[in-house]
Write a structure and sequence with these properties.
Layout (H helix, E strand, L loop, with lengths): L2 H8 L5 H18 L3 H8 L2 H6 L4 H5 L16 H23 L5
Helix pairs in contact: 2-6
């Protein structure tokens, strides 16, 4: 993940607190899934990873297992937790698309 470039780009869109939260969430996904967001973007524009991070309200209500190995504390709301991780990762892939014309992610 190109943290510095991502942070610089994000600062044009959101507050510093949100920048730091998005970076931490992206790093958590990379660490927990042992992946590189840059490689995931190159592979399929991030589509397969975003699919893994999708957890619907119906999934939550029916207590379906997660499609990925993200670790959550006992009693955590997986639905909200995965949604926040997915939002940050999706924003990183948006950054990659914008910067892709001038430099590969």
């Amino acid at each position: 993940m190109r943290i510095d470039d991502y942070a610089k780009w994000l600062r044009t869109l959101v507050s510093e607190a949100v920048v730091q939260n998005y970076i931490k969430r992206c790093q958590r996904v990379e660490k927990n899934l042992d992946i590189s967001l840059d490689l995931e973007f190159r592979k399929d524009r991030g589509a397969s990873l975003l699919d893994q991070l999708t957890y619907t309200m119906e999934d939550w209500q029916k207590h379906r297992p997660l499609r990925c190995s993200i670790n959550f504390r006992a009693g955590s709301d997986w639905y909200k937790g995965l949604a926040s991780l997915k939002t940050a990762v999706n924003k990183y892939f948006e950054f990659c698309q914008v910067s892709d014309a001038s430099r590969d992610c």
